[in-house]
Specification:
Length: 260
């Protein structure tokens, strides 16, 4: 997502030289993308949920009540979506909700006494961030958790005693990547699920957010520095380099990278 002119828009980069603007019914607030079906699932600034693909687009009816939905995610086959449900529109009390796109049936997936955010789904596992401490710690502590979608067992993955968020999974080396302020400023970190080891990946001067990992293991992320947003790419042990974007796009968020 990029901010251009006076609104947020979704762009897709199908090659290195150009961005294509996606035509949507309303301005998006957050979105998910499924590359195999070229489907966009997004929450608009009108609080509506919309599904859009290359041939059509339509709104999805929300359950009755006063909840708002945000941070959609699609599972690998593109048939199931996950959302953060904010009860009474309040981010202090959230659940993670599942939506079957064909039947448009909403069901609860993860309900805890704390707030949960940013679902990321694989075929068997749901990753999300969970606020574990607020008032008693004197600050917010948010860690990355996983939930087995078959057994329904949940477990905490990170333990940085800071804010760890925006986790994504990569099959390359069986790792999750996330943004955390565990060392002060926000950087991209990685957690090896096989060895249960957490380490910092980027060490730039800015604020590093929204990691996304390609099928080859290249890590893309957004760096905010000196009032600017840059699209960055880190490949292996090489230093992160900026990926050119049009100067008219003044801010970035919600980065997605397809797994082809």
């Amino acid at each position: 997502m990029g901010y251009e002119g006076d609104r947020w828009q979704i762009y897709i980069a199908e090659n290195k030289k150009e961005l294509r603007t996606i035509d949507l019914a309303v301005e998006p607030r957050s979105f998910a993308y499924h590359p195999d079906t070229t489907t966009f699932l997004y929450v608009g600034i009108d609080d509506g949920i919309y599904l859009s693909n290359a041939t059509s687009g339509h709104p999805i009816s929300k359950p009755e009540g006063h909840s708002s939905f945000t941070q959609p995610a699609l599972n690998p086959n593109g048939e199931t979506a996950y959302f953060v449900e904010m009860k009474d529109g309040n981010s202090q009390d959230t659940d993670i909700i599942q939506l079957e796109l064909d039947s448009q049936i909403f069901t609860s997936v993860s309900t805890q006494r704390s707030a949960q955010f940013e679902p990321f789904a694989t075929k068997s596992t749901l990753f999300f961030s969970n606020v574990t401490c607020v008032e008693s710690c004197g600050r917010i502590i948010q860690e990355v958790w996983s939930k087995d979608l078959t057994s329904a067992n949940s477990r905490q993955l990170t333990l940085l005693n800071s804010i760890s968020k925006q986790a994504v999974y990569s099959e390359v080396a069986n790792r999750i990547y996330f943004s955390s302020n565990g060392d002060g400023n926000y950087a991209i970190w990685t957690h090896d699920l096989s060895e249960s080891r957490t380490s910092r990946l980027t060490d730039g001067p800015g604020i590093d957010l929204y990691p996304a990992v390609s099928a080859s293991g290249a890590v893309f992320f957004i760096r905010r520095e000196a009032g600017q947003s840059k699209l960055m790419c880190k490949n292996g042990s090489d230093s992160a380099v900026a990926v050119p974007i049009p100067e008219t796009i003044t801010d970035l968020r919600e980065l997605k990278v397809s797994q082809w």
